[in-house]
Amino acid sequence: MYCSHQYFVFILNDRLKILQSTDSHTEWHYLALLHAMMSHPLPDHYTGMTGMERAFRLLYSAGCWSDQSFGGLSLHILAQIAPISHKTNYYPEHLTCMEKINWNSNGIPYSMQHFGYYLIAKKLIGSSQLFNFTYPPLKTNKIPEVFQGKMHNEMLLKKLYWDYRDSYNPAARLSAAMETDILQATSPTPYHQTLKNCLNITNYSPAQLVNDLYSDEHVNLTDCSKENWLPLS
Q1: Rounded to an integer, what distance in angstroms lies between the CA atom of residue 117 and that of residue 171?
Q2: Phi, psi of 104 (to 5 degrees)
Q3: How many CB atoms lie within 10 A of CB 210?
Q4: Cβ–Cβ < 8 Å for 21, 57
Q5: pLDDT (tens digit, 9 = 90+) per residue, 62-89?
Q6: Which contiguous run of DSSP H or E holds residue 145?
Q7: SS3 of 4, please?
Q8: How confident is the model at residue 206, as a pLDDT?
Q9: CA–CA dist 192, 183 (Å, integer)
Q10: Which of 19, 51, 65, 193 is the most buried (most CB within 10 A)?
Q11: Radius of gyration of the chain (CA)
């Protein structure tokens, strides 16, 4: 259990109208968590943004990213950010005909629960572990269970994010790189006709009226101008 007496100091920047952390990644993560948890559909009077918009800006800022593995407290905070996304899965789980979405009952308005929180929190952890081989071996902190793939169906979460993407303010969307990865992962494989593997290929020559239809003289053509039953004839 993490120390209950630990606290962070934030700065009110009246020029930029934002809350700022000092230097550590953990403080930036915690500030993003505060904005996300206290978000409201209406923008904040001080920042001019909703908590969701400010949380996403912080999570994409340099203060939240690192090329070193995060400490236990940062992982614990990211594990609290991820569940703000809905719990999603298929029903039944072995089929994909129905989607089940469980809304969180932690006091956040439903409109503030974003499918992208889980995805960006997991991306932060994954990016921090890419260059572990360049640093001295340290005690590895255990990845929280929320990122183990049992509580969230990540592929379905990506699909639902893309389905609801246009309902999010542009300031509260995932980065262009992450959206490209999501689109590639969720887009169905385009259909390509493979004629070389087909055994029933038939080459049809184009039909010609004179040579094909009328060649046996089975069709009698009549000059319509000589018919008296036509109007104005």
Answers
A1: 13
A2: -75, 140
A3: 7
A4: no
A5: 999 988 888 889 999 999 999 999 888 8
A6: none
A7: coil
A8: 64
A9: 19
A10: 51
A11: 30
Q: In this structure, what token pair is assigned to residue 132? A: 């572990």
Place of tokens 């969307």: 173
In the chain, where the domains are located:
11-186
Q: Tens digit of pLDDT for each residue in 26-65?
A: 999 999 999 999 988 899 999 999 999 999 999 999 999 9
Q: List the one residue out of 120, 128, 188 whose CA is nearest residue 154.
A: 120
Cα–Cα nearest to 171, from 53, 55, 73: 53
β-strand partners of 19: 12
Q: How far is it, in rounded angstroms, from Cα 27 to Cα 205?
A: 73
Distance CA 120, CA 141 (A): 19
**Residue 125 — very low, low, confident or very high, per pLDDT cuts 50/70/90?**
very high
What is the DSSP code string of 149-195? Answer: TSS--HHHHHHHHHHHGGGS-GGGS--HHHHHHHHHHHSPPPP---G
Give 11's pLDDT tier (boundaries 50, 70, 90): very high
Query: Largest Cα–Cα distance of the chain, in whole Å?
Result: 106
pLDDT at residue 210 in the model = 58
